[in-house]
Amino acid sequence: MFKNKEYNFFNNIYIPAIILILLYLFGNKGEIYFKAAITIGIPIGATIYLFKKISVLKLEKKKIRNILILTFIFELIFSIQIMFFGIPIIPYLPAPFNNLIFLGAIVTIVCSSFWRKKEYDKGLIKLILIILWSLIFLYQISINLIKIKEMW
Questions:
Q1: Range 100-109 contact pairs with CB under 8 angstroms and sequence separation of 24 or more
Q2: Domain segments of the chain as ranges
Q3: CB under 8 Å to 26, separation ≥6 — which residues?
Q4: Which residues contact 100 (CB under 8 A, 6 or more apart)?
Q5: Where are the transmembrane segments (predicted)?
Q6: Omega before 96 cis (within 30°)?
Q7: Beta carbons of 83 and 38 less than 8 angstroms apart
Q8: How far apart are CA 94 and CA 99, in angstroms?
Q9: How far is CA 42 from CA 23, 38, 78, 83, 124, in A?
Q10: Residue-by-residue pLDDT tens, the chain, 152 positions
């Protein structure tokens, strides 16, 4: 039903499911070593998986290296944010609309579908995604800084 010969997204859907289960199980625990292991393990696993998928393409080694480094950094930022800061939630909105990462993921999926179509400006799509995720990170950091300031 969901299979498309050009875009095989649903073939490997179990990988994000495993990551989300690990984040759910250990995300609210107090053990710092579980959080640190998962925070490092998820980006390394995602980078290895991406390397296996991207090595089939015939790209330059420099381009592959840049893609892998950028992906590792983004995965590390996401893991640190979720494991140590929690999921950013906007108060007074019903679930799941109060979860900023859920809303960011929806916008990212919509932008990726626009990206595949040739009629949309790719520069504008990049700008929307960069601004969206920057605002989510800034909101997350500012909420945690307010909590830390209130403790003093």
A1: 100/136, 100/139, 100/140, 101/136, 104/132, 104/133, 104/136, 107/132, 108/132
A2: 1-86, 89-152
A3: 34, 35, 38, 83
A4: 87, 88, 89, 90, 136, 139, 140
A5: 7-26, 32-51, 67-90, 96-115, 127-146
A6: yes
A7: yes
A8: 9
A9: 10, 6, 10, 11, 30
A10: 445 455 555 566 677 777 777 777 766 655 677 778 888 888 998 899 889 888 888 889 999 899 899 889 888 888 887 777 777 777 777 777 788 888 888 888 888 888 888 788 888 888 888 888 888 888 877 877 777 666 66
Task: Give per-residue pLDDT as tens, 64-96.
Answer: 899 899 889 888 888 887 777 777 777 777 777
Q: Which of 61, 47, 58 is nearest to 15 (CA)?
A: 47
Asked whether 79 and 39 are in contact (CB, 8 A), the reply is yes
Structure token pair of residue 93: 């909105």
Residues 6 or more apart whose Cβ sits within 8 Å of residue 15: 49
Token reading at 43: 């980006």
Tokens of 116: 């595949």
Residue 152 token pair: 């003093």
